[in-house]
Amino acid sequence: MIESSVLEKPATIESYVQASVPQFLEELCEWLKIPSISSLPQHKADILRSVDWASAALVKLGFKTEILRTKGQPSLYAERIEDKRWPTLLVYGHLDVQPVDPVEQWIRPPFEPCVQDGRLWGRGAADDKGQTFIHIKACETWLKTRGRLPLNVKFIIEGEEEIGSPNFEALVREHQGKLAGEAVVISDTAMLAKGVPTVSYATRGLVYFDVVVEGPKLDLHSGSFGGAVLNPALVLAKILAAMTDRKGRVAIPCFYQDVAKLTKLEKKMFSRARFVAKEIEAVAGVPCVGGEKGYSVVERVWARPTFEVHGLTGGFHGEGSKTIIPQRAGAKVSMRLVPNQNPGKIVKSFERWVAKLTPNGVKVRVSMVPGGGPAFVEDLDQPVFQAAFRALRRAFGAEPVFERCGGSIFAPEIFKRAYAQTPVLMMGFGLPGENAHAPNEWLDLDNFRLGIIASAYFYEEFANKARNK
Amino acid sequence: MIESSVLEKPATIESYVQASVPQFLEELCEWLKIPSISSLPQHKADILRSVDWASAALVKLGFKTEILRTKGQPSLYAERIEDKRWPTLLVYGHLDVQPVDPVEQWIRPPFEPCVQDGRLWGRGAADDKGQTFIHIKACETWLKTRGRLPLNVKFIIEGEEEIGSPNFEALVREHQGKLAGEAVVISDTAMLAKGVPTVSYATRGLVYFDVVVEGPKLDLHSGSFGGAVLNPALVLAKILAAMTDRKGRVAIPCFYQDVAKLTKLEKKMFSRARFVAKEIEAVAGVPCVGGEKGYSVVERVWARPTFEVHGLTGGFHGEGSKTIIPQRAGAKVSMRLVPNQNPGKIVKSFERWVAKLTPNGVKVRVSMVPGGGPAFVEDLDQPVFQAAFRALRRAFGAEPVFERCGGSIFAPEIFKRAYAQTPVLMMGFGLPGENAHAPNEWLDLDNFRLGIIASAYFYEEFANKARNK
């Protein structure tokens, strides 16, 4: 056991973190330099380097680590068992990152992280290396100030979250005993605004598709064939256009059939988060006029399903003009799902709708991109949420807010299916505008520091709650 | 004067061409090797090389040549005046070619021409170096077999037809006296089918646009922002989808207001060309189900206006998934116009329609790509058409057909505005499926040979008609 010197005041969690931030950032930058993009096969070795980096960081803190292989990219498991009779917390994070295109829009190269303007810049700074690192350093803080953790901590750091966690459920099933704990905490989300500590208790689900319309067997001269042959790019536009109606609702038949209605409590909580719309507008630079009429912005993003087009391609798009009927045109699309929509049913409804919209004269191929899943929602009335609430209030000095997350994180749902009785809590330290999936990703330095402190407090608060149960 | 040897039978036009085809092809291949793509600035020097090549070929035949500069790419002028009292024919062609992307779809490299399977393969083989060369060799045939041309011949070979002839009208105006003649012949179109010699007496016009929808100031995470922020790619799809209705008609208000109706004679002529639909289907590999309901395929392609999408771009279109609301999305679109649609009015109607379809929350920029123009139609009741009819019948041994051309060639309309009384005739030797604007362009070798013969006959037939007038 490390005793603090009798001559110095013992370091507190706050003072240790405060003093260590420069060193912590230096270490994190090393991790961010590894371009562990899971969606691009050429970065496979970088995923392994990213695993090794995290493993070394945890071994230094006395964790036992193990690389867990999957059919895809591996994940890292680590544990430090202080006392088998103590409660155990499983920390989930991920060590892979999003692609960086359009790379020319990055002010600083994506994998040359740097600290500037109160932010840490670089791909993965917020999503999710930076936030996973917050927990690693929360553990270090306990060990350096008290010589032990207040509870047993396990880490599972996934290697393919950014491609939709296609093998994570199998991994959890395979190592179900090893990963078991009294609660799961995930830091992979954003706070609603700076100074507003946030606990997320729900995520939206996702189904993602490639849609390709194929027409003539080659590009045709639009003069000689225009008026005779259907234009695949125009057919694609018509199919996409028919996915939502004039009220911004998804027009796929039966799409809303199983959508869970908000409870009165949630409606009340949501109305208190009305400021979220302003945050979104500040980041996006456009008014919040997307989505369904008749719902507030918060409802639309947190609790209503959506249809989005992520990309379009096909035919000619260089400088000037080329007069062709393109042979094919394609789109990447997805739907965000909410509780109780069933992804399997939605996939079928979408495919049927596309088929119905497909005219004679073209072929439309719809292929599901692996990695989707259902929405997730957790019961708020559990001790782990009270522990998080107290820890965040202590660290940030502000009243935390409970939110539903518009994004899709599949880990919570996967944990829920494996451990029905174990609560899953999301406590994120990102911020709106952090560019998690865009050029110029960043992490706020105050949130980095307070996130480590809040996580350290949370371990203690949860240990106390769990012991008193 | 070149006398044929008394020991040999004098060479006829047919026998000379027949014997010279291998040599002709060798020469043409040299021209095709020059990548004179007018839409790409990096090929500017290749346009000049292409001009020089054509100039040298004509100088060898005793033509005086001159490079005519414009604000854009230059054109080549050449003349051989046999006798100032004789009628003069102006031959129009172009020495620039279409881009070659997607280049990976070419079986043979686009600028390494070769002869195989009865075809000459390479970019520009049909459109339009090959067809321009047909006239150069028709002149050579006259000179080698008779020692003179049967009339005065002028060539104007344009350097930027494939970008819509933006400077050709100014060029014609500047050199109006120099280019004047009794008729203009253009070989830049296709025959309706192999063995069906074809005279075109009309073309469709064109207006071409870049449409860009801009939304948020950066790519956004579709989970955190989906439902709040309008998706530019989806807005673009809706705008494009609203350009045509369920009956395949262009839905832009006032679009059909000025469209000239077909005459009874034309309807009858068109119904005789019903086989065109089968040709189109054979090339395209899909049924002729595009365009307006209630019109025949021939009417739709020859005499009805259309709306086409040439390309789509925006957001993510790599492998796998990326969950963004793209910052922007864009399309290249055009409308083919028919007599009496006014391009200026159509441009305004289109812009107004796009503005009306643009929701709050996005900006839509519509920019016209230079090089469009109105449709063109010529009166068939003129001696030059009878001359062409006779020449084609003699060369091909089959009844020629009069067609309207679905494509847009701006030269005829430009000549018409400059020389109101001079007939413009299009006599093309391409074929459906020649891939004029696609990978693997080719020219049929029978048409190459018979095209030279027919052109040589046409000079004679027209000289006789013009003299007898």
Task: Summarize this structure briefly.
Two copies of one chain form a homodimer. Chain A has helices at residues 13-32, 44-59, 129-146, 168-174, 176-179, 222-225, 232-241, 264-272, 276-284, 297-303, 343-357, 383-396, 410-418, 445-468, and strands spanning 64-68, 75-80, 88-94, 114-116, 119-121, 152-158, 183-186, 198-203, 205-214, 220-221, 306-315, 324-325, 328-337, 363-373, 376-377, 401-405, 424-427, 442-444.
CATH superfamily of the largest domain in chain A: Zn peptidases
Tell me the major beta sheet of chain A.
9 strands, mixed
- Let me know the average pLDDT of chain A: 94
What would CATH call the class of the largest domain in chain A?
Alpha Beta
* Largest interface by Cβ-Cβ < 8 Å: A-B, 100 and 100 residues
Portion of residues in beta strands of chain A equals 15-25%
Category from helices, strands and their pairing of chain A: alpha+beta
Helical coverage of chain A, percent range? 25-40%
> What would the principal axes of the Cα set say about the shape of chain A?
globular
CA-atom Rg of chain A in angstroms: 24 Å
Plain-language structure description:
Two copies of one chain form a homodimer. Chain A is α+β, with helices and mostly antiparallel strands. Chain A has two domains: 13-203 and 375-468, Aminopeptidase; 205-259 and 305-371, Alpha-Beta Plaits (2-Layer Sandwich), CATH 3.30.70. Helices cover 35% and strands 21% of the residues of chain A. In chain A, strand 1 (64-68) and strand 2 form a beta hairpin. In chain A, helix 3 crosses helix 14 (445-468). The longest helix of chain A is centred in the last third of the chain and has 24 residues, at 445-468. The interface between A and B is large, with 100 and 100 residues.
